């Protein structure tokens, strides 16, 4: 059966994270992913403050019998935010679940990443309107940064179409994101190992006399388009062509949903691989 999933990047907020689950209209959730800055590359003071609100929200959701999974992310790193959220949305959507993203429970940079990832992956992105902001220590302790009084006003953002490169091109960008640079032949071997449509052949069957033809096919179907849109760059080194991912290419790789939580492998299936990273 379809499950209802919420993804909440969480900063210094409480009301904006939990009020939607107290709405009298009966909004429910089977599972909530809380994204929080717990990594060591985040300053200790920020980590400790985020952890305080994380524990507060976590406790409230568990009281409501909602499954909670905590994901460690650098909330001020746009690429990290887009990568984590895109992967989670893609994983849950492939499992047949309905995914919502709360883009209002963290900072502005995080909101941008969450919104972009949600729109690209087809999630329902929403914004929780605040009634005011905390001015006293007591307010901060009770509400977090934003105060939401009574039934929350929820704004659902209208998704617009964002055209991504095709599947093969996305896989190449995801691999280049990990490797940073690859030769044309390394890319061909990678696509052959994945059994991608135009490269569904045996690697040992690629004889040197066929290499030129296959390289032309790679350029025509994948690399020329990535070069045209500025997602990769290339240079010659002897007889080899070397491709590098550009900064804009990194955005596409992260928002593709193909990179997993640890950025050390590329997702090939829609199977759930839930992991608590806390």
Task: Report on the architecture of this protein.
The structure is a single chain. The protein contains nine helices and eleven strands. It is of the alpha/beta class and 278 residues long. It has two domains: 4-156, 3-Layer(aba) Sandwich (Rossmann fold), CATH 3.40.50; 167-255, Arc Repressor Mutant, subunit A. Helix 3 (78-94) runs parallel beside helix 4 (108-121), helix 3 (78-94) runs parallel beside helix 9 (247-255) and helix 6 (167-179) crosses helix 9 (247-255). The chain is elongated, with a radius of gyration of 21 Å.
Task: List its traits.
2 domains; alpha/beta; 278 residues; Rossmann fold; six-stranded mixed beta sheet
Give me the side-by-side strand order of the main sheet.
Answer: 3-2-1-4-5-8
Question: What distance separates the N and C termini?
Answer: 29 Å
Q: Helical proportion?
A: 40-55%
Structural class: alpha/beta
Order of helices and strands: EHEHEHEHEEHEEHEHHEEH
Biggest beta-sheet profile: 6 strands, mixed
CATH homologous superfamily title of the largest domain? Hypothetical protein VC1899 like domain (Restriction endonuclease-like)
What radius of gyration results from the CA coordinates?
Answer: 21 Å
* CATH architecture level-2 label of the largest domain: 3-Layer(aba) Sandwich
Count of separate structural domains: 2
Q: Point out poorly predicted stretches.
A: 267-278
Strand content: 15-25%
Number of helices: 9
How many strands? 11
Query: Which CATH class of the largest domain?
Result: Alpha Beta
Tell me the CATH topology of the largest domain. Answer: Rossmann fold
Could you tell me the mean pLDDT?
A: 87
**Overall outline:** elongated
